[in-house]
Amino acid sequence: MFFDGWHDLGRILIVGTLAYVGLVFLLRVTGKRTLSKMNAFDLVVTVALGSTLATVLLSKSVSLSEGMLGFALLCFLQYVVAEASVRWEWFQSVIKAEPSLLYFEGRFLTRMMKRERVTREEVLAAARNQGHASLDEVSAVVLETDGSFSVLSGDAAINAGTLASVRPADPDWRD
User: Fold this and answer.
1) Which CATH superfamily is domain 100-163 in?
2) What are 132-160's pLDDT values in tens digits?
3) Which sequence spans correspond to the domains of the chain?
4) Helix (H, G, I), strand (E, B) or coil at 46
5) Which of 91, 89, 57, 86 is closest to 71 using CA atoms?
6) Cα dihedral: 11, 14, 16, 20 (round 10)
7) In the prediction, which pLDDT does 116 show?
8) What is the separation of C-alpha 38 from the centre of its chain, rounded to a whole number of angstroms?
9) Which of 9, 70, 79, 173 has a beta carbon 3.0–4.6 Å from 168's, enabling a disulfide?
10) Burial of residue 151 (number of CB atoms within 10 Å: 0-12, 13-18, 19+)
11) What is the model's pTM?
12) How many percent of the chain have pLDDT more than 70?
């Protein structure tokens, strides 16, 4: 239970080192986008890579070559999806969510907050995390496609350009 023998420990050291080196090599070859967290699909790939590494390390029934094939398949699929997203806008709309405006010019946009299942306290926490002591300093809060919050400060007119692709709750969101 606490120690099954040196063979198992040696396997973990050798296979773990080789799997790690192989994964680092694949990540360098496939580029920075493979581990980005730009959308939900990117997050799934990152978690799946970690899960695959853990399985290769700890499961005797999964060989190093099977694990490396798993890494390569995940990296390839992530590359294909990212490439298709860049080439075809319709595909991007299927894969990626749109950022959502939750707070703008002194108003919480409650319809969007309900749609996105975000509470007022979470918006306030996002402002605090960005160093704002008061919402008077904040012009907009956006829930990004990766689930993070962007807090824009200063005049809303100055920041309007960065809000161009952000989805408001509905057409009359400014009332």
Assistant:
1) bsu07140 like domains (3.30.240.20)
2) 998 988 989 999 887 889 999 876 555 56
3) 6-94, 100-163
4) helix
5) 57
6) -160
7) 92
8) 5
9) 173
10) buried
11) 0.68
12) 90
> pLDDT tens digit string along 119-139?
999 999 999 999 999 898 898
Mean pLDDT lowest among 1-10, 26-35, 36-45: 36-45
**Most distant CA atoms of the chain, gap in Å:** 70
16-25 exposure pattern, b = at least 16 Cβ within 10 A, e = fewer: beebeebbee
DSSP 8-state class, residue 167:
B
With b meaning 16 or more CB within 10 Å and e meaning fewer, what string describes 78-115?
A: bbebbeebeeeeeeeeebbeebbbbbbeeebbeebbee
> What average pLDDT does the chain have?
85
CA-wise closest residue to 170 among 129, 125, 113: 113
Distance separating alpha carbons of residues 167 and 139, to the nearest angstrom: 16
